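Supplementary Methods, section 5.1.

A reviewer requested that the exact input to the structure prediction be made available. We therefore reproduce it here, unchanged from the version used in the analyses.
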Amino acid sequence: MASTSDIKKGLCIRYNHDIFKIIEFLHVKPGKGPAFVRTKLKSVTTGKVIDNTFSAGHKIDDVRVETHSFQYLYPEGDSFHFMNTEDFNQITLQKSALDAPDLLKEGEVVSILLNSEDGMPLSVEMPTHVVLEITHTEPGVKGNTATNATKPATVETGATVNVPLFINEGDKIKIETDKGTYVERVKE
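The structure derived from this sequence is encoded token-by-token as follows.
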């Protein structure tokens, strides 16, 4: 048993007869009244996100997890196939288990949290940044740079990301996976 002081991003807990992963949290200490923790929980079985508030000191039932490295192999409908990089066993996960499935490139190595009790996969943790190639974007309009102007660009995985006007087709860009936003152009 853990308490609200142990809450952190990525922690898996048992709540309402399901297992949830904490994706956001905020400790709040109002000037009047008791402290509490406001959380955003994502169900690892359905992918549904709920908001919940725990009072300070509330006991939570955490789930013991193991983290393993898996390589993303290929998609098949709404299923994604991964291979353990240590023992080469393969597993299949549903699209709802992934936070940013549209930024996942074949061959990418991710961390998958497995329940220690039954070995069931709980969630997929993407790397903080991915490098993807631009496959389609409109050319930037000259003179449209008075502000931080951006344009939509399609990357090799099919995702659409807003990029600065100087980015062209064939460029490789670094994308932050949490927000799905452009970080920088990568020179090779």
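The mean pLDDT is 84. These observations are discussed further in the main text.
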